[in-house]
Specification:
globular; 6-stranded mixed β-sheet
Length: about 120
C-alpha cells in the first residue's frame, strides 16, 4: 500500500480557515483523525472513495467539510471557524472495507490555532 501524504497544516488565528490535503491511492474509505499530546486520537471525518457517504464528528459539524477529487487522488478537509481546541496533529488513514480497521496511516500535519 502507498502511504497517504498529508499537507496543508499551519498556524492560524481562531476563526480562521485551513484546508488539509491527503494524497492517497485507491481505498474503500478514508478518515481524518487528530491527536494532541496526552490524549487519544480523535475521529474527525470520513468519506468513501466510491459513492457519496461521508461522516463528520459532532465536534466539527458545520465547520469542517470532507471532500474528494478523484482526478487528483486527493481527499480534502476544509476547516472553517477554527478554535484553539482544534489544535493537534491531523492524520489521514484508509480502510479497505467496511469491517477492516483503520490502517495505512500518514505521517500527519500539524494544525495550531491561536486564541
Amino acid at each position: 500500500q502507498v502511504q497517504p501524504v498529508e499537507s496543508g497544516g499551519g498556524l492560524v488565528q481562531a476563526g480562521g480557515s485551513l484546508r488539509l490535503s491527503c494524497v492517497v491511492s485507491d481505498f474503500f474509505e478514508l478518515g481524518w483523525f487528530r491527536q494532541v499530546p496526552g490524549k487519544e486520537r480523535e475521529f474527525v471525518a470520513a468519506i468513501r472513495w466510491r459513492g457519496s457517504p461521508k461522516y463528520h464528528a459532532d465536534s466539527v459539524k458545520g465547520r469542517f467539510t470532507i471532500s474528494k477529487d478523484h482526478a487528483k487522488n486527493t481527499v480534502f478537509l476544509t476547516m472553517n471557524a477554527l478554535k484553539p481546541d482544534d489544535t493537534g496533529v491531523y492524520y489521514c488513514a484508509t480502510k479497505e472495507s467496511q469491517i477492516t480497521p483503520w490502517g495505512n496511516w500518514g505521517q500527519g500535519t500539524q494544525v495550531t490555532v491561536s486564541s
